[in-house]
Every structure is written in structure tokens, then in C-alpha cells.
């Protein structure tokens, strides 16, 4: 049953995959999906994304991996669409969006110091607006 599930061509987009949970998820999926699957990993740090790409190509050399360095704290539907548009006409068996990205910033700060609205808005954009906009674009295209 499990083998049947994974033995399909997956299209997977993971936000925040240059480290942490996102990177681990990229490893787990890449080692399980069938050949000719596609994984797209997003984050700001280009070097770290490239090194995750190398790692997951080592897990499974028969899949395609694309990296996109982007600041998701500035969600922009047109920009997200540009990333996904080239895959619009594809015919994968399963399409998965993992909205992993998120941050609460410097957790050493205590609650009494959270008073900078500009900073709070940035986290709101990253944690709330960005996944909503990405989901909208993904659903429209796939
Ligand atoms: N760790 C936990 O204990 C825990 C518990 C519950 C929930 N979570 C949630 O799980 C998710 C991942 O957590 P984590 O601990 O793996 O986080 P992490 O280690 O801090 O990694 C965050 C990832 O998001 C990317 N990222 C951060 N800000 C970004 C931005 N503005 N634009 C684009 N990418 C950005 C980072 O890459 P770049 O720096 O390269 O951009 C990195 O790849 C988060 O949503 C978090 O809230 C974590």
C-alpha cells in the first residue's frame, strides 16, 4: 500500500527549505518519490538552498530540483505565479504545497518588548499572508 502511494510522480513545493523542518521534509520526500518527480525549494539564502539541492539530488538522482531564493515576507501573487507558471502544463500524479515557512523572530525577547509595528507586520506577512497567497496561486494553476 505504502509502496503504491510513493510510486507516483510528485510535484512538491516547500517554502523555507534551506534549513530546519523544510530541509528535512525535502530529504524525506526526495528519498521516497518516484523518478521524474519535481521538488522546488524556497528560501532567502541562495547558498544554503543550493547545498540542500545537492543533498537531495544525492538522495535521489532521478528527480528534478529547483531552488528559488525569495523573501516570502513580501508576498506577491504575480511573483509566485512566475515561479510556478513554467509547470502549469505538467502532468504529475500528485501536487503538494508545503507552506512550512514561518518565524516569530528573536525568541529571546520578552513580550514587553514587542512594540514595533513594522517588525510585527513583517512576521504577519510571512506567517499568515504569504501562505494564503501561495495557496491561492497554487490552487489556480494546479
Ligand atoms: N522548530 C520548532 O520547534 C517549531 C515548532 C512548531 C512549529 N514550527 C514551525 O515550523 C516551521 C519551520 O520551523 P523551523 O524550526 O524549521 O524554522 P527555521 O529553522 O528557522 O527555518 C525557517 C526556514 O524558513 C526560511 N525563511 C525564514 N524567513 C524567510 C523569509 N522572509 N522568506 C523566505 N524564507 C524564509 C529560512 O530560510 P532563509 O533564512 O534562507 O530564508 C528557513 O529555510 C515554521 O513555520 C515554524 O513556525 C517550528
From TrEMBL:
InterPro entries the record matches: Biopterin_syn/organic_redct (IPR051721), NAD(P)-bd_dom_sf (IPR036291), SDR_fam (IPR002347)
Organism superkingdom: Eukaryota
PANTHER family assigned: SEPIAPTERIN REDUCTASE (PTHR44085:SF2)
Pfam families: adh_short
Protein name in UniProt: SPR
Chief location bin: cytoplasm
Lineage: Eukaryota, Metazoa, Ecdysozoa, Arthropoda, Chelicerata
Keywords, comma-separated and alphabetical: Cytoplasm, NADP, Oxidoreductase
Species of origin: Cordylochernes scorpioides
Localization (cell): Cytoplasm
